[in-house]
Amino acid sequence: MRESKAGVLAYPNSNNLGDFIQSIAAAQWFEGPPLFLDREALHLYQGQKVKLFMNGWFMEAPKNWPPSEAIRPLFISFHLNPTAEKGLLKPEGISYLKKHQPIGCRDLYTQTILERHGIRAYFSGCLTLSLKRALFVNPNQKRKGILVVSPLERLLPTHTNTKKEGIKEALLSKIQSVKQPFKAKQYKQAMHLLQTYLAQAEDEIHYTSQLMDPKGYSEQERSKAALDLLKSIASAKMVVTSRIHTALPAVAFNTPVLFLADGLDHINQKSRLDGIDSFFYSLQSKDLKNKPFEIPKQKPVSSEILARFEKEITDFLNT
To answer: Facing residues of 79 across strands?
Structure first.
């Protein structure tokens, strides 16, 4: 019996437009408006049977795994972050993944971890690679300007959540306090190198961020901002970013992209890039020193990846 509802992951509390971009990439495969389900509360869903694309980063609350039996999942572009491995790969979680294997993994790290647990998996790449430029701009529109999206943000000093109490939290807070002056200097130096590099370009430079505070903007406003960001990426002559879900849509739109990998050395970040970084030109800000400006050559998206998206999704939606 075919299910009448189609589902897409939602991120009501996310400050990252990249999450919303992944939802847009999933929703494009449905003819009508899909049902949006909170990624962090899939275990609570009790409605009509729904088909749901499980694409993206999993997850902030691993205690809420596995999802409800009312959800029929398609695991494609799935990322299992090291921060959630222990929670998601408990016996019941492994059993759930085996029930719905093979698992299409967004990155090679996730594929390796799942295979170690006896789960059949393959590298699918990210569903955002299937985004079509013609859905966002006139394909004959002339590209213009260099779009710089959230460059080097991970180098910025961060503050530990002081609402939590305990020895671990106090230690982390102390460490962050010690690091802040160094990180502020590191960020300033990196930005100077980037701006000096871009100053050589003849095109107009536009700066924007992939982050929006959910306290100041509604979920609908953040979703619209994600759509507007995709339009800007599709219109640009070149994109510079440190954000995966700005870089990958650029690849999908054949927009040349320069990815700055500063601050992505920790396993929680490196795991997300494993395999994905082969799609775009990546370097560190220090590599920009004395480097002549150039628009990097863009690799086309693998036809094999796009063909597998088409097959897996079409088969899923038709059964």
So the answer is: 57
Cα separation, 239 vs 231, in Å, equals 12
With 0-12 CB in 10 A as exposed, 13-18 as middle and 19+ as buried, what is 105?
A: buried
pLDDT at 246: 98
Per-residue pLDDT tens digits for 99-117:
999 999 999 999 999 999 9
User: Cβ–Cβ contacts within 10 Å for residue 208, how many?
Assistant: 16
Structure tokens at 127: 């569903």
Tokens of 198: 């871009």
The three-state secondary structure class of 82 is coil
> Which tens digits make up the pLDDT trace of 19-43?
999 999 999 999 888 999 999 999 9
**Radius of gyration over alpha carbons of the chain, in Å?**
20
CA torsion through residues 190, 252, 302, 81, sign: positive
Buried b (16+ CB within 10 A) or exposed e, 113-132: bbeeeebebebbbbbbbbbe
Q: Could you give the CA distance from residue 77 to residue 83 in angstroms, rounded to a whole number?
A: 18
A 10 A CB-CB count for 196 gives 14
What's the DSSP call for residue 67? P
The H or E element containing residue 147 is: strand 146-149
Q: At what angle do helices 17-27 and 244-252 cross, to 10 degrees?
A: 40
Q: Which two tokens stand for residue 256?
A: 């040349």
Distance CA 6, CA 90 (A): 28
Domain ranges of the chain: 5-130+303-317, 133-288
Fold of the domain built from segment(s) 133-288: Rossmann fold (3.40.50)
Bridge partners (DSSP) of residue 123 are: 105
Alpha carbon 10 to chain centroid, angstroms: 13
> What 3-state class would DSSP assign to 71?
strand
